[in-house]
């Protein structure tokens, strides 16, 4: 009963988040509502171990993350992936903007060690927060141990709705373009939709077995093989390139050569199960702090978050036009540093689904926005934030 009750609570929290998002047409993102519910739950009656009790352990999450990133690769092509270098540049330079403002102005307002402890989680996800927490413990700076995780929690609460608003504006801008171009057979919009419609029809798989053998487990096994290969390569290269990034790239290649189907895990009917488990694990990090801890450091957190987001805004505002993006899209790419995958995927698909009037329009919006958000998130959270955290640990 305990395990089933824990699982049910998590599913209800996720359900409420999705319903609120649907009711508000993505004005209020689902992950924001679910994060609020988890926070209130942990601060009141919810057990701290509710997520692992529901079977979402670190082992499950390790598997889910790798499989889902390979899945993301099956939704792209190599040409599209390489075209996103502009999104990578904007996201990384947005992080530079954050570092400049927080380290300069922030260090004038607060203790130097406070700034050093708080900035890495601001430029990345939970990995950077946990790295800084462990570093603070090792250095014996116990007064700041709660700061990195608290920063992660607070900036996510601000980052989710802000990014959703920006993506919505970008989506509405793109829908106007699509509706103008949809009747022109030579337009970019029509070509994108046609490519989406025919991708599965054109795809020839390397392994063409009789239909009776093409079961969901056949798809999952192949996705797992690619994920395993990607992680093995990551170990061989001593994670010079983050294993998560390798999973995405190998997923793209496996799809291009016909080893994996388009949208493989959805065809195997396990995509949502893995995604919900990964989200549950991320929300479980909200149990690491309390209202009392937040109350003592709320001023530092809010000021540094505002400085960090201002740095991202200035960088994206300056770079948007030279890089051929709208300011909303550029700013959203920079903001992926606040959360990364899977939040960038969920926020984007929610907005595209609620704005679009039909499947073709949704396919166009997704193709124009999702690759930028995914690649931007990997550049910041999976790569830059870990490097920054490693450097800042030495500064402590």
Automatic annotation (TrEMBL):
Organism superkingdom: Bacteria
Keywords assigned: Membrane, Transmembrane, Transmembrane helix
The species this protein was found in: Companilactobacillus pabuli
InterPro entries in UniProt: HDC-like
Transmembrane regions listed in the UniProt entry: 6-22, 27-45, 57-75, 87-109, 213-233, 240-258, 270-290, 297-319, 373-393
Protein name (record): Sodium:glutamate symporter
């Amino acid at each position: 009963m305990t395990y089933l009750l824990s699982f049910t609570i998590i599913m209800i929290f996720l359900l409420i988040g999705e319903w609120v998002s649907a009711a508000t047409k993505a004005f209020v993102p689902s992950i924001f509502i679910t994060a609020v519910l988890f926070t209130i739950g942990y601060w009141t009656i919810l057990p701290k171990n509710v997520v692992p009790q529901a079977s979402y352990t670190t082992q499950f999450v390790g598997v889910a993350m790798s499989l889902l990133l390979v899945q993301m690769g099956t939704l792209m092509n190599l040409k599209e992936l390489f075209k996103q270098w502009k999104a990578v540049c904007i996201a990384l330079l947005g992080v530079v903007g954050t570092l400049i403002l927080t380290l300069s102005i922030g260090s004038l307002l607060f203790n130097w060690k406070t700034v050093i402890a708080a900035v890495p989680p601001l430029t990345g996800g939970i990995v950077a927060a946990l790295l800084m927490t462990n570093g603070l413990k090792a250095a014996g700076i116990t007064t700041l141990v709660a700061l990195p995780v608290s920063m992660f929690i607070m900036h996510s609460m601000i980052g989710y709705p802000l990014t959703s608003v920006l993506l919505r504006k970008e989506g509405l801008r793109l829908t106007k373009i699509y509706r103008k171009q949809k009747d022109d057979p030579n337009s970019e919009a029509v070509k994108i939709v046609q490519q989406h419609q025919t991708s599965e029809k054109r795809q020839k798989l390397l392994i063409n077995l009789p239909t009776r053998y093409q079961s969901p487990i056949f798809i999952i096994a192949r996705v797992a093989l690619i994920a395993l290969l990607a992680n093995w390569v990551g170990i061989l290269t001593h994670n010079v390139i983050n294993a998560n990034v390798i999973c995405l790239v190998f997923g793209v290649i496996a799809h291009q050569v016909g080893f994996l189907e388009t949208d493989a895990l959805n065809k195997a009917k396990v995509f949502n199960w893995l995604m919900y488990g990964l989200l549950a694990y991320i929300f479980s990090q909200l149990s690491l702090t309390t209202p009392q801890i937040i109350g003592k450091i709320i001023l530092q957190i809010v000021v540094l978050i505002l400085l960090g987001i201002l740095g991202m805004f200035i960088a994206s505002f300056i770079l948007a036009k030279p890089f051929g993006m709208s300011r909303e899209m550029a700013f959203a790419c920079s903001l992926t540093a606040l959360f990364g995958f899977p939040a960038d995927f969920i926020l984007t698909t929610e907005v595209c689904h609620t704005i679009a009037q039909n499947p073709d329009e949704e396919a166009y919006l997704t193709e124009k926005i999702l690759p930028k958000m995914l690649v931007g998130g990997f550049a910041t959270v999976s790569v830059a934030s870990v490097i920054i955290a490693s450097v800042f640990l030495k500064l402590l």
